[in-house]
Write a structure and sequence with these properties.
Layout lengths: L9 H19 L11 H12 L6 H27 L7 H26 L3 H11 L3 H14 L4 H35 L4 H15 L2 E7 L10 H9 L4 E7 L2 E3 L12 E7 L3 H8 L2 E2 L3 H4 L6 E7 L10 H4 L1 H5 L1 E8 L2 E4 L11 E7 H11 L12 H14 L15 H16 L11 H24 L2 H9 L1 H24 L4 H11 L3 H11 L3 H28 L1
Helix pairs in contact: 1-2, 2-17, 3-16, 3-17, 3-22, 4-5, 4-19, 4-20, 4-22, 5-6, 5-7, 5-19, 5-22, 6-7, 6-16, 6-22, 7-17, 7-18, 7-19, 7-21, 15-16, 16-22, 20-21, 20-22
């Protein structure tokens, strides 16, 4: 049994690793007032066991740490990739700009503390990563440090203390962020009921679907087809779902000429409601019983794309409305609700929300496959190909005139960028990147567990000595890095941009990549829009946190 703890033995390494992960996950189940550090307990379990002498061979430890980090960031990239560029549209743009401000302020505060106190910049990078609960940032910093091969005293200090600094700053990073939200709510005297009304009103005004009926009265439209009138400019926000002519309800063909007196059932948003009535004519009361006559048999349904031949094709190319008499209204991809724009490229795993006749939906289902059970089988080729490409991209040197050494994206940044690009552009290249959400979560959790265990075991040997030798000041530094950016950006969002409280909760949770803060705010304030806003800023923030950590290490070197 004692042989399992032998430093150079593979069985011993696996035993120690599994013990650390299992212990940390068990501790993560316990909550204090609804708050848990989750998988971060794996890091603390590794530190404790490492402090008492459990070791893994350095080469094995390095491989486990790097491979775990790659799995983690690649899984994140695949999940957020489909919505990465979409998140910059409309309301997402100011939110993402504020998230950029959170990242930049954290870097500036960290550098200011380094300048004033003389603390090692590599240590400050670890403190910053812990203060914003960003584990990939720690991994990127460590990987950049090790791959540089630098032998300076600053690099040596950073190499031995960066993980300990992260571990010290992390708990207050979670608790401090929660304190900011509670203090923010008290100072601004936020009434949750009024905020809910405001949020609901804004949502209905900006994004909610609106159904109206119009009577064709504009003489300029008589004899023109639906396609001529709606055209490409309006096809994204004016969807004609049904037509009534001579008392009969049917789905309109795009080439069908309109006649005076035709009635159109239109789905749009509140901003374009007036535009619809201006184009077509008088708005009529909507009685859905009138539009659902027995002969019409118009139904809605959700269809899953499971045929790989659909990957890379756009809604426009499939010509679904013309061929099948079906309108696709929304598309769900990787948990993200996308607008059914004509040029949107489809891929396996997409879920189409469609409305039309039963026959049309059945024909469309045959076209796209609609066999969701087939999606349970993982598609591993693009995953491992993407990891290989990501590692290669991460090793490409990027030279800047002011830096003595070239910047590399490393084993964190390279796979993350490649995964995001694959998730977004893969369908256009006919690459199926779909991974079931449960499978993605499994890969991600395995990766972060391996990484945390390896980091904790590596830091355990020097953790106590670092803490006693001045590391207690890291707690203060971490608190400043947590609090200052969140307070500044929160005030700008509330006082300057008039964001509602739930949007601010999502912004600060996603901007600090803090799932514990997200969980806490959802449980306490009970609003599902918090998670939506979290997802809006999370992809860009995650990318910038990883890059910022590497840049700080390069500045130190």
């Amino acid at each position: 049994m004692l042989g399992l703890f032998a430093q150079g033995d593979t069985a011993g390494a696996i035993f120690v690793l599994a013990l650390v992960v299992a212990s940390g996950l068990f501790l993560g189940k316990f909550k204090f007032k609804g708050i848990s550090l989750g998988t971060t307990w794996i890091l603390f379990a590794g530190i404790i066991l490492g402090h008492f002498g459990l070791r893994i061979h350095p080469i094995m430890l390095s491989f486990i740490k790097d491979f775990g980090l790659i799995l983690f960031v690649f899984a994140i990239g695949l999940q957020v990739g489909p919505g990465f560029f979409h998140s910059f549209r409309k309301d997402g743009l100011p939110m993402n700009m504020l998230a950029v401000g959170l990242v930049l302020l954290a870097v500036l505060v960290s550098y200011a503390i380094h300048f004033v106190s003389g603390e090692n910049l590599g240590i400050m990078t670890g403190i910053m990563s812990g203060a914003v609960t960003n584990t990939p940032g720690l991994g990127a910093a460590q990987q950049t440090l090790s791959s540089s091969g630098a032998a300076s005293p600053e690099a040596a200090v950073a190499a031995t203390g960066i993980a300990s600094a992260y571990a010290v700053a992390y708990p207050l990073g979670v608790l401090g962020a929660i304190a900011v939200l509670l203090l923010f709510k008290a100072i601004f005297r936020i009434d949750l009921e009024k905020e809910q009304e405001k949020a609901s009103r804004n949502e209905s005004e900006e994004t909610a679907a609106f159904r109206l009926a119009c009577k064709v009265e504009n003489p300029a439209l008589f004899g023109k087809t639906v396609h001529d009138i709606v055209g490409e400019e309006n096809s994204d926000h004016l969807v004609i779902t049904r037509m009534m002519r001579d008392g009969k309800v049917f789905f309109p063909d795009l080439d069908l000429p309109l006649k005076e007196g035709d009635k159109l059932l239109i789905v749009t948003d509140i901003q374009h409601k007036d535009k619809a009535s201006i184009i077509f004519g008088e708005e009529c009361p909507v009685d859905m019983n009138e539009w659902q006559q027995p002969g019409a048999k118009l139904v809605s349904g959700r269809l899953s794309i499971t045929k790989s031949s659909i990957t890379g094709k756009s809604l426009r190319k499939l010509d679904i409305r013309r061929k099948y008499g079906v309108t696709v209204t929304r598309i769900m991809r990787a948990g993200i609700d996308l607008q059914a724009a004509p040029d949107l490229i489809l891929q396996v795993g997409d879920s189409l929300q469609a409305v039309g006749s039963e026959e049309g939906l059945a024909r469309l289902a045959a076209l796209v496959g609609n066999e969701p059970e087939s999606l349970h089988k993982p598609n591993l080729i693009p995953i491992f190909f993407g990891i290989a490409l990501g590692v290669a991209v991460g090793m490409i040197p990027i030279r800047f005139p002011s830096m003595p050494q070239p910047l590399k994206l490393g084993l964190a940044g390279g796979p993350l960028i490649v995964a995001i690009l694959l998730g977004h552009f893969g369908p256009k290249l006919r690459i199926t990147t779909y991974t079931a959400l449960s499978a993605n979560l499994m890969v991600r959790e395995i990766g972060i567990s391996l990484f945390m265990a390896a980091v904790g075991l590596g830091a355990g040997k020097t953790f106590v000595a670092s803490l006693v030798g001045g590391g207690y000041m890291w707690v203060l530094y971490g608190a400043l890095i947590t609090l200052i950016p969140m307070v500044v950006i929160g005030i700008i969002a509330r006082a300057g941009l008039k964001f509602d409280f739930f949007k601010i909760c999502g912004l600060l949770s996603g901007g600090t990549t803090d799932p514990a803060l997200l969980s806490f705010s959802e449980q306490l304030f009970g609003n599902g829009r918090i998670a939506v806003n979290y997802a809006t800023v999370y992809p860009l923030t995650m990318f910038l946190r990883v890059v910022a950590a590497q840049v700080m290490i390069m500045i130190m070197l």
